[in-house]
Write a structure and sequence with these properties.
With about 575 residues, the chain is an alpha+beta fold.
Length: about 575
């Protein structure tokens, strides 16, 4: 068996110097049937290694409940079959523009800011998780015939905290559970990040998008010896809803890559292929500059990242530029590109034949209703991704007063006595028209994605402060949650009727007939905010504010002939709503 080691000035494979040319590709953002193609694209670009995170919350939705942890092992087997090495970053925190940075909402709801410290209430759960996860990784290490050459301890911890005892405990846990390959940390190339996030005896790496020489000089102040590695070379960036689509000039990015390699360093392209945050798992950031305390900025469903391999798996101009740079570091001719995936043969319209109002969907698929003095949060109701209906009565008779929702996260469609009265947000929490009593108020509150980076990590969702009429808190709140996971077993229990003749929120059901199944994109003209499932596969969130204008439908999701479509419209959509349609990518 081979051995991978950290030498005094570089990496060693069986005692011989080796440079890591790695690319990030998240198995959870690519349909499993397309892993082989995407890994082949990385090899063709000139890479010899792939890096992936592991999102804890995807695999443990509730305490004691685990879901397809075996996917990690299957992906690593695909990596080995593709002739690549693997770097695994199991967290437990991963960032990755992923819901809650990969931490389960039930964990941060319970532990709050104690998460990512050595507080026993958090680390006990981490130990249980790693003992379930690591059996998928340990047997697949290089010294046991597998592809795994390094494992990361936490992720960019120095930009969050300074509890190095927590990092030491994680490193010790990895070792005690059988990780024998080198461990590493990754942080920004700043003194406070490297002092807070690195560990003695563990390889320290840095993350940046440019100015490699300056970044490595900072690293050398902290680590005079050992390999140089940019663990995240940010060759693109991600998008926020209602923002601009971010791109980076391919020639400029290629020159930044060349500078890293000219420093004698190893590199991991972040991202080599971004993929898609299927299932509503996209995270969010807080604006407001370096403090990350400003308005919520939810991430779009596409994680294209302006990567060299685009969301659909196609090579871009950046791919060609990077391939040219990387070819100089390859021992022979680069492999050819793999055959492209099949593409949808012809456009196809979705025919929507059934509809159920939100209340009917909630009754069929929602959790139990609670009655409490103050509104419970999503976490208290066990809702991760989805929405909660809050119902409260305004006593009367009383004159019209402003209705305010304090601590709203993130968006509420408000109904007063059954009539839509407006949309509230964290920044605009007061209903435009005052409300007189008596009245019944319904708030359908939607989470737009949990923060995945910064000091607001783990903040609760829902109504976190209270509902006020003038200055008076309204008590006696009924709440019921609808989690997106409730759709996993289908919608057979939902009482569908005929779709309404006008725009309306609710769950729509229909079919699309496909000829020539293959990769497609779903256009949703006239829709506002919705989630879409095709044959039970959740494509993610669509929002008319852009910049994303369609949803990616992987070819393996589709089948020849009729395909079932569910569309959960959360706002109602525009008055003129053409039918959704599938188009070739």
């Amino acid at each position: 068996m081979s051995e991978f080691a950290v030498g005094e000035s570089g990496f060693l494979l069986d005692g011989r110097p080796v440079r890591l040319l790695s690319g990030a590709l998240h198995y959870f953002r690519v349909h499993e049937a397309q892993w082989g193609h995407r890994l082949g694209m990385l090899r063709a670009m000139g890479l010899n290694c792939v890096e992936t995170y592991v999102p804890w919350n995807l695999h443990q939705p509730r305490p004691g409940t685990f879901r397809d942890v075996g996917a990690v092992g299957r992906f690593l087997d695909a990596v080995r079959a593709a002739g690549l090495w693997a770097i695994v970053r199991p967290g437990p925190y991963i960032c990755a523009e992923w819901e809650n940075g990969g931490l389960p909402a039930w964990l941060t709801g319970e532990s709050g800011t104690r998460a990512r410290t050595r507080d026993e209430r958090c680390t006990a759960h981490v130990r249980d998780w790693f003992r379930r996860l690591l059996p998928a990784i340990v047997p697949r290490q290089l010294d046991r015939g597998g592809p795994v050459i390094m494992v990361q301890v936490e992720n960019e911890y120095g930009s969050y905290g300074s509890d190095t005892g927590y990092l030491e405990e994680l490193a010790g846990l990895l070792r005690s559970e059988g990780v024998t390959v080198p461990l590493l940390t990754s942080d920004g190339p700043e003194d406070h990040m490297l002092t807070g996030g690195s560990l003695p005896g563990v390889l320290a790496t840095v993350n940046f998008g440019s100015h490699a020489r300056e970044a490595f000089a900072t690293l050398r102040r902290h680590r005079p010896g050992g390999p140089l590695m940019c663990m995240e070379f940010w060759c693109g960036w991600f998008d926020h809803w209602a923002g601009e689509h971010v791109v980076r000039d391919p020639a400029e990015a290629a020159e930044a890559l060349r500078e890293i390699l000219e420093c004698g360093a190893s590199v991991n392209l972040y991202m080599a292929h971004g993929g898609t945050s299927f299932g509503g798992w996209a995270g969010a950031n807080r604006g407001g500059g370096a403090l990350h305390e400003g308005p919520l900025e939810p991430d779009v469903t596409s994680y294209d990242y302006d990567a060299p391999v685009d969301e659909y798996g196609r090579p871009t101009e950046k791919f060609r530029r990077f391939r040219e740079v990387l070819s100089a570091y390859h021992p022979g001719p680069l492999p050819d590109l793999p055959p492209p995936p099949a593409v949808l043969g012809a456009p196809a319209g979705v025919v929507l034949t059934g509809w159920a109002p939100p209340a009917g969907v909630l009754e069929a698929l929602g959790g139990p209703e609670t009655l409490t003095a103050v509104p419970p949060t999503f976490e208290e109701l066990g809702v991760t991704r989805g929405l909660v209906r809050y119902t409260v009565d305004v006593p009367g008779p009383r004159r019209p007063y402003p209705l305010t929702v304090r601590g709203l996260r993130d968006l509420a469609v408000v109904y007063v006595d059954g009539e839509r009265a407006g949309v509230l947000t964290e920044e605009e929490p007061v209903l435009e028209e005052p409300v007189a009593g008596p009245a019944r108020v319904e708030l359908w509150v939607e989470s737009l994605g949990r923060v995945n980076y910064g000091p607001r990590l783990g903040e609760a969702k829902g109504v976190t402060g209270g509902i006020l009429h003038e200055r008076q808190y309204l008590h006696g709140v009924r709440a019921r949650g609808l989690d997106l996971d409730a759709f996993a077993d289908g919608v057979a229990a939902v009482p569908f009727g005929t779709p309404p003749g006008q725009a309306a929120p609710g769950l729509y059901r229909g079919t699309v007939t496909v000829r020539g199944a293959g990769d497609a994109r779903l256009e949703l003209p006239g829709r506002t905010r919705c989630f879409v499932w095709v044959n039970g596969f959740n494509l993610g969130r669509y929002w008319s504010v852009g910049p994303q204008r369609s949803l990616f439908v992987p070819g393996p999701v589709l089948r020849e002939g009729a395909n079932e479509v569910w569309l959960l419209e959360l706002d109602g959509g525009g008055p003129d709503r053409p039918a959704p349609r599938l188009l070739p990518v």
